[in-house]
From TrEMBL, chains A, B:
Protein name as annotated: Phosphoserine aminotransferase
Function: Catalyzes the reversible conversion of 3-phosphohydroxypyruvate to phosphoserine and of 3-hydroxy-2-oxo-4-phosphonooxybutanoate to phosphohydroxythreonine.
Matching PROSITE patterns: AA_TRANSFER_CLASS_5
Any single Gene Ontology cellular-component annotation: cytoplasm
Lineage: Bacteria, Pseudomonadati, Pseudomonadota, Betaproteobacteria, Burkholderiales
UniProt gene name: serC
Single annotated GO MF: O-phospho-L-serine:2-oxoglutarate aminotransferase activity
Residues binding L-glutamate, per UniProt: R42
Membrane spanning stretches: none
Enzyme class, UniProt record, top EC level: transferase
Amino acid sequence: MNRPFNFSAGPAAIPEEVLQQAAAEMLDWHGCGMGVMEMSHRGKEFISIYETAEADVRELLAIPAHFKILFMQGGGIAENAIVPMNLSRAGVVDFVVTGSWSQKSFKEAAKYAQPHLAASGKDSGFTRPVAPKDWQLSSNPAYVHICSNETIDGVEFHELPDLRALGCDAPLVIDFSSHVASRPVDWSRVGLAFGGAQKNIGPAGLTIVVVREDLLGHALPITPSAFDFKTVADNHSMFNTPPTWGIYMAGLTFQWLKRQREGELTGIAAMEQRNIAKAQRFYDYVDGSQLYVNAIDPAWRSRMNIPFQLRDASRNEAFLAGAKAAGLLQLKGHKSVGGMRASLYNAMPMAGVQALIAFMQEFERTSA
Amino acid sequence: MNRPFNFSAGPAAIPEEVLQQAAAEMLDWHGCGMGVMEMSHRGKEFISIYETAEADVRELLAIPAHFKILFMQGGGIAENAIVPMNLSRAGVVDFVVTGSWSQKSFKEAAKYAQPHLAASGKDSGFTRPVAPKDWQLSSNPAYVHICSNETIDGVEFHELPDLRALGCDAPLVIDFSSHVASRPVDWSRVGLAFGGAQKNIGPAGLTIVVVREDLLGHALPITPSAFDFKTVADNHSMFNTPPTWGIYMAGLTFQWLKRQREGELTGIAAMEQRNIAKAQRFYDYVDGSQLYVNAIDPAWRSRMNIPFQLRDASRNEAFLAGAKAAGLLQLKGHKSVGGMRASLYNAMPMAGVQALIAFMQEFERTSA
């Protein structure tokens, strides 16, 4: 089966092997006579799915033992409230705004905490974040929030900030929704990471939270029990019925990730090498073209989400129609930025990038 | 394919036709080249799935136009916080406790409102709820909360209370998680209904909320934006990325429901007739047996969740092992009640009830 290449920013392409396995097991998981959606979350079948998924993601992302892994619901937007409910103690929280998603987080936190804008890339149209050395951190924030990859704006932290080196002892919170599992995470610099699954891990409706144990247990009294990290951790993500299908799909994706190889590299290291190569190839092409442009500071360009504009915006509709006809789907940019966006998540092979570039070359040639 | 009969209380059995369709469309929905999990929630493909699901459930449940239908996340336990956040205005809320689920709702509401216990069936071990005429309602509660079917305790409201007839003008909130779509709803008596999907509608991770429009817009300031009913309604359940797969599966289930026929009856009316017949058959058998007992007041017995005990509890493990060997799955009762529980949701055919009774008869005969 030759499927089109799907460049959606999320919900996004899922590896074909994963979808095929899910279809094959739909009515009967491992001979138990039930599909995964039909299992009690407290039965031994689902518990084994859950425990395998948790162990696999811990291994893949090298998550240290003193971090809890939570499977929750509500996505990044719900976490924009849930994180300050759990971590702020109603105090000062520093936000570094690098695009649409960190801006949303900053705004929502005002319901629960005293958000302080430590830096904003808004003056540059979010094409160039403020470097950590220039952040105006508070003297004693409850935590510092960044979005480590901005899905809409296409900027990515290629190194997580070292808050201690900046003279700040607060935990770092990262929203890693749109680049989770695309590269390793330096957990020594992180207090909490959260992400919706629907870009690189699985279907929408599953949220993964990785939180240092010492940060648990300080939720505001108005925190819903279902969203109190300590309650969730103490109940192994089963205080409320978890999104069982999402956890299963994420588990299949983790197993797929573990099978990936690039030379000597495996798992996330292999994926990172591929992701570097895919992004490099695409940016090189865009930078060398006359028709397309990506305005992001090269040091901050995202490997996952690449917004690009046609210099002649009147050609946008023709571009999208032609791309679709060529089997290249969901390339329309976010409405707040316009133009196009190619999301090159783990499930996008180099062949998809090559096909996109080939189409863009032909489109540029015939547009001239 | 002969699958076992799955009596899980939830996540629960899904109609085989629905699972087969989901498997067949897994890699390519309607020729678009993407699976449902891979689609942007803002693309025309998913929008059509969403709009069809919404229209179908409105038609099936005869939901009036002045009610909004919201597709959310977090299940009933999250709604135990989200409903008082949205509806209580931090005032008095009356709770009628008929079992485990309404007890949980009562407890969680204390974070946001002044919960008042209007009635409790605890003295009877939740075998016999307090009749509405004996409820001690407050003079002006923000709303009155009931759980219209208690999944664990096996009691069901066969008629929704008419609060106006009781001299109360407050809206009635019903947690209908475990009997939604099993029978019609008298919306003239309801202000808001909520339910997790994982019993009668689809997979875990999707919550359906049906709310009268005039109740929107009064959320407490600490309500997360993702859980503010007005924000959710104004954004057609897409303020945050919705659980797209859950909505798709619910939509397939709604279409399956629309295809059901019993004589002249279709849809929910047909399902109700079947559900009455299945429950009657099972209760009749239990009441006539020497080994099995159901302690619930017959006027309040649930059609969906039937807890039953073996008079000789030492036979419990043998019962469960024998049932599993006979292709009758997930019959173990909730740990707080013990014994057994047969959940007879829409997806359970009469043949499953007959098979269970046949096994129980044989087990009783050989246990004597």
